[in-house]
From TrEMBL:
Entry's family note: Belongs to the bacterial solute-binding protein SsuA/TauA family.
InterPro entries to which the protein is assigned, alphabetical: ABC_SsuA_sub-bd (IPR010067), Solute-binding_3/MltF_N (IPR001638), SsuA/THI5 (IPR015168)
Organism the protein comes from: Komarekiella delphini-convector SJRDD-AB1
Pfam families tied to this protein: NMT1
Domain Solute-binding protein family 3/N-terminal: 70-287
Protein name listed in UniProt: Putative aliphatic sulfonates-binding protein
Subcellular location: Periplasm
Top-level taxon of the source organism: Bacteria
Signal peptide: none
Known role: Part of a binding-protein-dependent transport system for aliphatic sulfonates. Putative binding protein.
GO molecular function, one term: ATPase-coupled transmembrane transporter activity
Keywords from the UniProt entry: Membrane, Signal, Transmembrane, Transmembrane helix, Transport
The UniProt record lists the keyword Glycoprotein: no
Length: 356
């Protein structure tokens, strides 16, 4: 509107300026658009690279945090997973890049293994339900880091095939072999409750599996509370009768436990250990015959017998749920009620949250 009042020459100058300005404005817009598109492509490429390299970066970071860690594992020959990991050197391979060292110590059962954690001799191990309860009562600085479902069919109370004992009530006044503080210690308590027999009305013979087997075969005990694969071996060798297994009495779970100092100081190393345990556990679940062949020379038990034990158990490396914690708490409360332990404890206080 303003241009109609201007002289022709001035009007031409203004018109030329406005045309040039419009070209300049369009050019600037195009430049910014091109820059934005380029930046988007760069970010997209970087994001793609980050995704493809995330696993490698995570592995590198974990390797760095595992530098010079000394990982000390306790195991039992009959505890399939850790024994197989030891034999196959799974952990040594997993820690090779970081330079961490791995050492192994064998134990006859769970209680002495947890005593070793208390003494600072080992960092990690696997036991049945009862040993960690006794350990917590005594002040052992342990942490539940995972559980294994195992199976109620994998533990039982057996009697000689010629025994006059026919019911749980018949255990009153009898001598029963059991590993003190073991998973079958709880089975024995619950079985006596079902048979309406007071725990104080039996004569417990606290024996480790090899000694208990000798006492059982020598008729020096009337019954034996035992777990697989020793259970399967005794049944095959002696024709022992099963008075009861743990079905409806005890969940018969296994627990992976670690020293609190190890969990606090080396959580990445602990995760590496659990990763390898999971891999080997998956293998064992799908290959019972191979597991039996591996364990046979280790335990001096025929592979066919061991395969029976393998097929009636389950494997897993699972985080502790509220249900599992409540179940373990019930065992602790039962032991306190019958004065097997001198004080009550709170299981949830020593459960690791890093495996959730």
């Amino acid at each position: 509107m303003l241009t109609k009042y201007l002289p022709n020459r001035l009007m031409k100058i203004v018109s030329s300026f406005l045309q040039n300005y419009e070209i300049f404005r369009i050019g600037i817009f195009a430049l910014f658009f091109a820059c934005g598109l380029s930046l988007t492509l760069v970010i997209s490429a970087c994001s793609s690279n980050n995704t493809s390299n995330s696993a490698a970066t995570q592995a590198a970071n974990q390797s760095a945090t595992n530098q010079n860690v000394a990982v000390r594992i306790g195991y039992q020959k009959a505890a399939t997973i850790l024994n197989a990991i030891r034999a196959q050197k799974d952990l040594e391979k997993a820690f090779a890049a970081s330079g961490a060292s791995v050492t192994w110590a064998e134990f006859p059962s769970g209680p002495p293994m947890l005593e070793a954690i208390n003494a600072g001799s080992i960092d990690f191990g696997y036991t049945g339900e009862s040993p960690p309860i006794f350990a917590q009562v005594s002040g052992t600085p342990i942490v539940y880091v995972a559980y294994d479902p195992w199976s109620p069919k994998a533990e039982a109370i057996i009697v000689p095939k010629s025994s006059f004992i026919q019911t749980l009530a018949d255990l009153k006044g009898k001598r029963v072999a059991v590993a003190k503080g073991s998973n079958t210690n709880y089975l024995l308590v619950k079985a006596l409750e079902k048979g309406r027999v007071d725990y104080n009305d039996i004569k417990p013979a606290f024996l480790q599996p090899p000694d208990a087997r000798a006492a059982f075969e020598g008729n020096n005990v009337d019954a034996w509370a035992i777990w697989d694969p020793y259970l399967a071996a005794a049944q095959a060798a002696t024709g022992a009768r099963t008075l009861t297994d743990a079905t409806g009495l005890a969940p018969n779970r296994g627990y992976y436990l670690a020293a609190k100092s190890f969990v606090d100081k080396y959580p990445d190393a602990l995760k590496t250990v659990l990763d390898e345990v999971k891999k080997r556990s998956n293998w064992a679940q799908n290959n019972p015959a191979e597991v039996a062949k591996f364990l046979s020379p280790e335990l001096g038990i025929d592979a066919e017998v061991l395969e029976v034990a393998e097929k009636r158990r389950e494997y897993g490396v699972l985080p502790l749920t509220e249900e599992v914690i409540r179940g373990q708490q019930q065992i602790a409360d039962t032991f306190y009620k019958i004065k097997l332990i001198p004080k009550s404890i709170n299981i949830s206080e020593i459960v690791w949250k890093g495996n959730q």
